[in-house]
Amino acid sequence: MTAWTAPDLSDVLSARQRIAPYLVPTPLYRYPTLDAMTGAHLWVKHENHQPVGAFKVRGGVNLISRLTPDERRHGVISASTGNHGQSVAYAADLFDARAIICVPEHANQVKVESMRALGAEVVFHGRDFDEAREFCEKQAAEHRYRYIHSGNEPALIAGVGTYTLEILESRPDTEVIVVPVGGASGAAGACLVAKAMRPSVEVIGVQSEAAPAAYRSWRARSLVEDTTSTFAEGLATRTAFELPQQILRDLLDDFVLVSEEALKDATRTMIEKTRNLVEPAGAAALAAVLAAPERFAGRKVVIVCSGGNISPSQLIDLWPPPAT
């Protein structure tokens, strides 16, 4: 296993300076109906309000802003189910870099369209994220592109850690932050910032029980592979990533799994109660709170809405038309 140098709070503060000209802080809103449903004092960190509809763009801008002109010209390549790919494409467009994104064959078309509109070349390969990633790594080695791993990149983690800076500066009395986990860059960034700024803050990761590789790796304290069958593509990884897991092992307070049905219910609830489009991964934190309300009752809780890139077909599945 590679020993990675994890970023620290100073790296996150530097990342904020780099991304400030391009990305504004996202809202932190409270909804009385969610308070009533959960028994908590609940705030939603709206990363779905980012230009590409998801939190990962913070990391993409931080990383690509630091590449050399030669690296940008020759090109970057990455694998994604969509949101990380949009992040790379958005940042590549800002800094005039060539971007190639490898996605699974049945990738979310909303995200694919966004990547193409930003100027990225989208290559379809494989049944799931991990098959697309393996293909991507071969292409990177063959053509000597700058490969941007979706988890094992300190600059990505430092970049996405900036949303936790915003949370704790806006609500310094926060007691709990609940974060969806796919590759775990968001949870890793949240841990780094929260434990440096206010160690008493409890950081909880959430993953689907239909894609539990990161959860099982955290529990085992070593990298574990598993199957993935979740409909929430933002959580759909068969393998865990070394650098985020290294950080989570040291700093994450707890990690929970939620059912697919709980994810669907939470997605519907987030859309209905916050009037925001939310993708299933972005509703995972609410699903965790709703699954164990006694744990959060009376506490000041922030749930991270990591993304809002839900496809029309996913919306139809959540609200099927009435039978005729």
What would your notes on this structure say?
It is a single chain. The chain is of the alpha/beta class. Helices cover 46% and strands 15% of the residues. The protein has 16 helices and ten strands. The strands form two sheets. It has a six-stranded mixed β-sheet, with helices on both faces. A four-stranded parallel β-sheet has the order 5-4-3-6, sandwiched between helices. The longest helix is centred in the middle third of the chain and has 15 residues. The chain is globular, with a radius of gyration of 18 Å. The N and C termini lie far apart (57 Å). The model has no long low-confidence stretch (mean pLDDT 94).
Relevant terms:
324 residues, alpha/beta, 16 helices, 4-stranded parallel beta sheet
Mean pLDDT: 94
Inertia-based shape = globular
User: In terms of per-residue confidence, which ranges show pLDDT below 50 for 5 or more consecutive residues?
Assistant: none
> Which oligomeric form is depicted?
single chain
Query: What is the string of SSEs from the N terminus onward?
Result: HEHEHHEHEHEHEHHEHEHHEHHHEH
Explain the layout of strands and helices.
Blueprint: H1 9-19, E1 28-30, H2 32-38, E2 41-46, H3 57-64, H4 69-74, E3 76-79, H5 83-94, E4 99-103, H6 109-117, E5 121-124, H7 129-143, E6 146-147, H8 154-160, H9 162-170, E7 176-180, H10 185-197, E8 202-208, H11 213-220, H12 242-251, E9 254-258, H13 260-274, H14 284-291, H15 293-296, E10 300-305, H16 312-318
Parallel strand pairs: 2-10, 3-4, 3-6, 4-5, 7-8, 7-10, 8-9
Antiparallel strand pairs: 1-2
Helix pairs in contact: 1-3, 1-8, 3-5, 3-8, 5-6, 8-10, 9-10, 10-12, 13-14
